[in-house]
Design goal:
Elements: H1 2-13, H2 17-37, H3 59-71, H4 77-92, H5 96-102, H6 106-142, H7 152-179, H8 182-206, H9 210-213, H10 217-225, H11 245-268
Helix pairs in contact: 1-6, 2-3, 2-4, 2-6, 3-7, 3-10, 4-6, 4-7, 4-8, 6-7, 7-8, 7-11, 10-11
Keywords: Membrane, Transmembrane, Transmembrane helix
Protein name: Putative ABC transport system membrane protein
Transmembrane segments: 21-42, 62-87, 108-127, 158-179, 186-209, 245-267
């Protein structure tokens, strides 16, 4: 098993794939956090407190700054794509047969690939944390705004982001195992991870099914990462739109593991040519 895991990790880190997507994490997440940090403490509406929701920041405001890419369903696309590419590249380049011949027990191959997905996803999350703290936290410091980096809630967000990245990478791996065609799997993954969630969120909102929208993977991510009201009470709310962070974490983990296991089980019963 150890040799199979090392082999899978070597496949990841000897290609340009991993650092190309890693640069995407740095630039995308850093840029979004950079932009959001300018809203903290900004008076945008005069006497209307709801127009300046981040005028009086708290720990939840900084959680939002560091997790804004997840709020807009953009950041999850990177680990999702990573998970898809880590498995579909084998099918695309016809190397999956050699992999199965090298390790004849297919469950061992799948388990090794899952470990590689988890390790790589966690590494991406660490880089994400560094990027958002450097970009967003740097701007906040220069503007004289609090970073709340002494708050346990903010550090919880930075820590839980590791699990969030891993879960989305597992979802991508599951899509890749199910579909196997690289382009199709990426398109389906993006469709589900981005477009479908936006559309379903709008539909559920129009139908007043707020409780149903909690179950969407993107909203589970936000529920894991933003645990305090980022507006510090400036905007009225009809209720908590998310599950508690640990329930969200359990559900998103279940989604990722379920899709990965189902995809792997189906793929293991297909003939490899």
């Amino acid at each position: 098993m150890g040799g199979a895991v090392r082999s899978e990790l070597r496949k990841v880190f000897t290609t340009r794939l991993w650092w190309g997507l890693l640069l995407g994490v740095v630039f995308l997440d850093g840029l979004i956090s950079f932009g959001f940090s300018f809203l903290v403490g900004a008076d945008l509406g005069g006497d209307n407190p709801s127009a300046s929701p981040f005028l009086h920041p708290n720990a939840g405001t900084i959680q939002l700054v560091f997790s804004a890419g997840f709020v807009y369903y953009l950041t999850p696309l990177i680990p999702l794509t990573l998970g898809v590419l880590l498995i579909t590249s084998e099918f695309r380049h016809k190397t999956i047969s050699a992999t199965y011949l090298a390790v004849p027990v297919r469950p061992v191959v799948v388990a090794a690939k899952l470990v590689a997905v988890v390790v790589t996803g966690a590494m991406y999350a660490l880089v994400h944390d560094l990027a958002v703290v450097a970009a967003g936290g740097g701007v906040l410091t220069l503007r004289g705004q609090p970073t709340f980096l002494d708050s346990g809630d903010v550090w919880q967000t930075l820590g839980v982001s590791l699990l969030t990245f891993v879960c989305w990478a597992l979802l991508g791996f599951g899509f890749g195992m199910l579909i196997q065609n690289q382009i199709a799997a990426i398109l389906v993954g993006i469709g589900v991870g981005f477009l479908a969630q936006i559309i379903l969120g709008i539909v559920f909102g129009l139908l007043s099914w707020d409780g149903v929208s909690r179950w969407l993977p993107g909203n589970l991510s936000v529920g894991m990462l933003v645990t305090q009201d980022p507006t510090n009470g400036a905007q009225a709310s009809s209720g908590d739109p998310y599950f508690s962070w640990w329930v969200s974490a359990l559900l998103l983990t279940a989604y990722g593991l379920a899709l990965s296991i189902i995809g792997s089980w189906i793929a293991s019963r297909r003939d490899i040519t």
